């Protein structure tokens, strides 16, 4: 099969195109999927570059770093093996199943769940693996996954549109779940023009919350179509003044970086900060007095609760959320597609087509 194969940590040159890569064979309880489309995500960039390593303290650049530790360069803090096929957001058609899997799945269109569980202990977050990281993913003509780590999706959306959902939207839903967002909240979303940011806007609105998006002025038109109640500039000099009389109870952030203290300073007493990324930089300054004197709660969100993926599929099938498909590229042009993703040339998600 054709596949874009990651050969190690480093720059985009670490991707190597193959037209004769071995096609996977489904093991017991697995399905073989002919990939119709696969989305790009920050996890692909960060794992490839080694940004997750604690030796890296700068913003996500997408380039190679001078020093990456051998023992912690991935989301889980442990090495992965190369070669590796990345791509967490695979959508396609089941063409074969392994022993124990229902043959009726053959011919069904499915979407993969990025989180691959140990189904003998599915609630154990320590045993979770990530599709396209610890196991091969969807940057190929074919991929395979446990049938319990995918879902049949009934929708008029195209494969490319469906491939925008799994990683970005499940990440966003996991963040909102951890922060216990309700209709009584006002949620501030930095980086609202990105895949997770746009998902946060839609999913917080779905919960009935008031949503204030932050994005560069040039992207306000695109962000407005996601339905936020207000849009602010990407980084106002005086965030409190820009907010006016808004009472922000939740900050849902994947940006981090030097602006981070301003986000914390505007949280209401008893407010919650939830985080699933740090694309502008992982090292931030916290005044602990702000944390405890204002009764704030901080939550990190990576491995999502089991119910989140099923909830996401239900939202899609009901039309409660909409895809934000920015661009599609042929899989062979993955390097160009990922550079466009890194440069933030588009608003929303980028998808590759095998």
UniProtKB/TrEMBL annotation:
Species annotation: Roseovarius aquimarinus
InterPro entries: ADH-like_C, ADH-like_N, ER, GroES-like_sf, NAD(P)-bd_dom_sf
Gene3D superfamilies named in the record: Medium-chain alcohol dehydrogenases, catalytic domain, NAD(P)-binding Rossmann-like Domain
Keyword set, alphabetical order: NADP, Oxidoreductase
Pfam families: ADH_N, ADH_zinc_N
The protein, known as: Alcohol dehydrogenase family protein
Keyword Cytoplasm: no
Superkingdom of this protein's organism: Bacteria
Domain Enoyl reductase (ER): 10-352
């Amino acid at each position: 099969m054709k596949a874009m194969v990651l050969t190690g940590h480093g720059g985009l040159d670490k991707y190597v195109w193959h037209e004769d890569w071995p096609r996977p064979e489904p093991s017991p309880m697995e399905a073989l999927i002919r990939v119709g489309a696969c989305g790009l995500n920050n996890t692909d960039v960060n794992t490839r570059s080694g940004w997750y390593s604690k030796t890296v303290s700068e913003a996500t650049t997408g380039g190679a770093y001078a020093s990456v530790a051998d023992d912690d360069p991935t989301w889980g803090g442990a090495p992965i093996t190369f070669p590796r096929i990345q791509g967490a957001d695979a959508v396609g058609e089941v063409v074969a199943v392994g022993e124990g899997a229902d043959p009726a799945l053959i011919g069904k269109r499915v979407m993969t769940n990025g989180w691959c569980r140990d189904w003998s202990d599915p609630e154990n977050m320590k045993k979770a693996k990530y599709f396209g990281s610890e196991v091969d993913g969807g940057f190929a003509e074919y991929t395979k996954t446990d049938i319990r780590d995918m879902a049949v999706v009934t929708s008029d959306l195209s494969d490319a549109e469906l491939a925008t959902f799994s990683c970005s939207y499940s990440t966003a839903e996991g963040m909102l779940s951890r922060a216990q967002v309700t209709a009584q909240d006002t949620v501030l979303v930095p980086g609202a023009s990105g895949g997770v940011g746009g998902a946060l806007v839609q999913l917080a609105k779905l919960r009935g919350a008031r949503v204030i998006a932050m994005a560069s002025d040039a992207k306000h038109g695109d962000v407005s179509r996601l339905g936020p109640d207000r849009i602010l500039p990407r980084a106002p000099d005086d965030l409190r003044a820009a907010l006016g009389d808004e009472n922000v109870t939740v900050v849902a952030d994947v940006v981090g970086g030097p602006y981070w203290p301003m986000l914390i300073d505007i949280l209401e007493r008893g407010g919650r900060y939830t985080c699933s990324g740090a694309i502008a930089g992982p090292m931030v300054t916290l005044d602990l007095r702000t944390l405890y004197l204002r009764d704030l709660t901080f939550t990190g969100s990576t491995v999502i609760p089991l119910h989140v993926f099923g909830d996401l599929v239900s939202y899609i099938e009901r039309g409660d959320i909409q895809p934000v498909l920015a661009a599609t590229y042929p899989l062979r042009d993955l390097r160009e597609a990922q550079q466009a993703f890194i440069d933030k040339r588009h608003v929303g998600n980028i998808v590759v087509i095998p």
